[in-house]
Amino acid sequence: MELSFSRANADVDQIISHLLEVSGDIRQPALIREMLLAVLKVGQEVDYLADLKLINRTLREMRFTTKVFGPYRDRKKVTIFGSARTEPDNEMYRKCVDFSRKLAERGYMIITGGGPGIMQAGNEGAGSENSFAVNIRLPFEQAPNPIMYRNKRLITYKYFFNRKVAFVKEANAMAVFPGGFGTLDEAMEVFTLIQTGKTSPKPLILIDDQDGYWEQFFDFVKESLLVKGFISGEDFSIFTITKSVDEAVAVIENFYRTFHSLRFIDNRLVIRLNKPLAPEQIAILEDEFSELVREGDRIRCCGLFPEENDEPDLANLPRISLLFDHHHYGLLLAFIHRINTF
User: Fold this and answer.
1) Segment 260-275, tens digit of pLDDT
2) Positive or negative: CA dihedral 107, 113, 116, 118
3) pTM, whole model, 2 decimals?
4) Pfam families attached here (predicted)?
5) Does residue 166 contact residue 65 with C-beta atoms inside 8 Å?
6) Half-sphere exposure of residue 19, counting CA atoms within 13 Å on the CB side?
7) Separation between Cα atoms, residue 251 and residue 247, nearest integer Å
8) Nearest-5° angle of CA 79, CA 83, CA 88?
């Protein structure tokens, strides 16, 4: 029998409906129905065992990720990347401990890869009670650090791609300390996701050492990417480079000063705010960021959209909305920074 996501599966649809009913307490049953059909279709279409194991493990890992992070949705989180080989007596280790401690004092939770080096420093500064560890199973370097060993917020992944989803999806900001291939891979992924709008705008802070690890990276970006036209000038809004822990903390805090969150509804960008904007402030935004707004539209104050009813805790926030030009995600970061000056 060829299965379809439309309701044309005869007995299978009835069995799935009965399964949802007897399971009880199923949230979003329409989506769960689609997931069950997808699994059945995989069973019909895939006979290569390795592919089936990958799909199965991915679903299990993502389910557990959601379970672990779910109770902490109301707390902002910062993901910290950096080398597993940074020793505790290193300047950057101590700087990371200080950075995560100051964030925890302000109510943030810290997400690290759960291993040694900068990851351990991030967990150490925040304390195990304010930390998550999204670990990866490797033949070397990546046993859970002693801060997070047996912590209920420790997750160990088989696949890097599932781990990367957790790093970015659950974070309200990212901080990257100097590191090797793995650190650069994680940083570049975040650059790409923000630049292409595949994750919500959030602060990306490159915390530098005294040798200018990230300053050298910045020179490369200017001389080899910007000059050759591989990126645009507005992409420099995506990140901040600093050697100061206090500045790094301030960048994160200021990002959520007036801006709260955003959501796309059809083609409309809805920006939720911590306080309303005055008409003259909206006029300033329209003047300074006209490229963001599609021709014929304007930035306007608005209320709750019906599609936002699944986020009732945000219902009373003031909002502005616009038809967004999707070519300008770097400029969108600058737009948010400008909103936060009001």
Assistant:
1) 999 999 889 999 999 9
2) negative
3) 0.93
4) Lysine_decarbox
5) yes
6) 13
7) 6
8) 100
